[in-house]
Hints:
The protein is about 35% helix and about 10% strand.
Amino acid sequence: MKLFHLCLLLAAGLGEAFASPVAAMAAQTTKNLLVFGDSYSTVGFWPGGQLPSASSPIGNPGLPGQTTSAGLNWVGHVTSTLNTSLILTYDFAYSGATVDKKIVNSWAQYSMSEQVDLYKQYVAPKITKADALVAFWIGINDVGEAFWSKKSALVTECVNRYFELLQVLVNDGYSKFVLLSIPGKPRPFGKEK
């Protein structure tokens, strides 16, 4: 149990330690949202299919997408209900994803590392970086595996890979990021007490 709490604290603490507020003006200039992560974020988008457009802002499938809540998740709300402008959303997230299958294997079709590869293959040349916001929400599956396997070193490897993937996107010209983390220790996995 001690390892579990250590992993949760590390993951939650990193998210808070590296978080910085985004100026309100960023929302007014954002035209493209790129999302990478796991089931918290997936809408079932396939970048080889219909890309986002004014008539279908999350591309394929149409809103609300194929979410784990069977309705709009946070991505759908940001795209369609919580803004006053058109935001085209490229959501590469997959249920069950980990940061990298080479570190923590998963049944998910694509890890975050592979999601970044899909972005580079299908979408990178089509996006204007200056008006894009990149969102990462990953970690629950990585921390869970570290806990169940009793291998806390996995968390360090995952965090290192996470920042390598961020650097790939920085090197590609992105400068606006939202980094979301897993639930903290007081309310792990959505529990109130």
